[in-house]
Amino acid sequence: MKITNYLITFLSFLVQSFAFRENIALNKNTIQSSTYLFWSNYKPAYASYAVDGNREQFENDPVGGPFCASTLSNEANYWWAIDLGQEYTINMITLYNREDCCDYRLTDFQLFIYNPSINTWTYYDQQQGQLCFYQAVAAPSVLTIACNQLIRGRFIKLYKKHHYFPLRDALTLCEVEVFADQTPYKGLYCKQTNKQPILSLQKILTKTTRLRCAIFCRKTDSCLGFTMTVDGTCSLFQTSKYSAGSHVGSIYFERC
Fold first, then answer.
1. Cys bridge to 58: 100, 160, 224, 249, which one at CB 3.0-4.6 A?
2. pTM of this prediction?
């Protein structure tokens, strides 16, 4: 009995703890449908700028930029892709949108994951990919998502069609972070004070504990995290965005 109580206490502590995560997208090989050339300093906005570890969210400056990957504007469709180098179970993907201008360009897009039999840029998307996530509206400044289902793969591709905007359309990604899950049905959840869940899964438990809520989230496809209220109500979410301040009336936990 004492051992069981100790185990529950220990696991509850882990649910509230912060843990280190490795961004497996960092400095990996990338390509995109086209590359924009800045007229101000004649520097191309390569696809690799989205995985260089720099989270600056403005597109360019005359000295240090570009900071974001960007395609040419007003094309029929746009895409950006990354080769992770090996097969992973994808846990979370975080996208950093522009903040200085044109955040609407990161809207109405799909994220696909591919696990091809031939791992080259020529053939990576020739077999059917699995849809990880669809974002209908403009993405917030920082968008973190869990895939719609548990997916293993090596290549990730973000695809969107052209939309008309007064300041021209394009695809711009300031940073993309990808996190793998070695134990997809186990693991920890970290308490978040600077994030806000934005896409409910309509999955709720009442009069429960944080540990049971974490297990519930782990067993639910597309669950990124959960909120807990003081009365023990657990609500699951698929996406989150960065926000200033703490949440009123609930505590938010996210995969870590």
1. 100
2. 0.89
